[in-house]
Design brief:
Order of helices and strands: HHEHEEHEH
CATH architecture: Orthogonal Bundle
Structural class: mainly alpha
Largest sheet: 2 strands, antiparallel
Radius of gyration: 19 Å
Shape: elongated
CATH topology: Recoverin, domain 1
Bound molecules: calcium ion
Number of strands: 4
CATH superfamily: EF-hand
Distance between the termini: 63 Å
């Protein structure tokens, strides 16, 4: 009787383990943060727009949160590319990850102010959704 119970417990444990998602939890992709929450999430200096540095700090923190084995690289198991992702390349190191963010930032910053307004972010995302990039 005891062994049956132990076996059932082992099966339950195995099911539980297999139910754990392989992808990392962590902050959402920067491009998937709802527009209504972008400023609250990213605008640390409160100037009403997202500076290059503010976004880069976010994606850098996210990189380290996703890099669960701390090998300074995000692979497809740690973080499969998702909608709004900084870069779909895998594996990817921190420098390439930041470069991908920087390139997207430049694409969004149509008035070249070095800071993304909500209107610029909205327009940039629409263009990306439409495959315009
Ligand atoms: Ca700001
Ligand atoms: Ca890694």
């Amino acid at each position: 009787m005891k062994s049956v119970f132990a076996s059932a417990a082992a099966t339950a444990a195995a099911l539980l383990l297999s139910a754990v998602p392989v992808h990392a939890k962590g902050p959402p992709p920067i491009g998937s943060i709802p527009l209504s929450e972008v400023l609250a999430t990213l605008d640390r200096n409160g100037n009403g727009c997202i500076d290059l540095e503010e976004g880069r700090n976010y994606v850098s923190r996210r990189f380290h949160a996703l890099d669960r084995n701390d090998d300074d690289s995000i692979d497809a198991v740690e973080a499969p590319p998702m909608a709004g992702e900084t870069s779909a390349s895998r594996p990817i190191g921190l420098n390439d990850w930041q470069d991908a963010y920087h390139a997207r930032f430049d694409g969004f910053d149509t008035d070249r102010s070095g800071c993304l307004s909500l209107a610029e972010i909205e327009a940039g995302r629409s263009a990306a959704d439409a495959g315009g990039r």
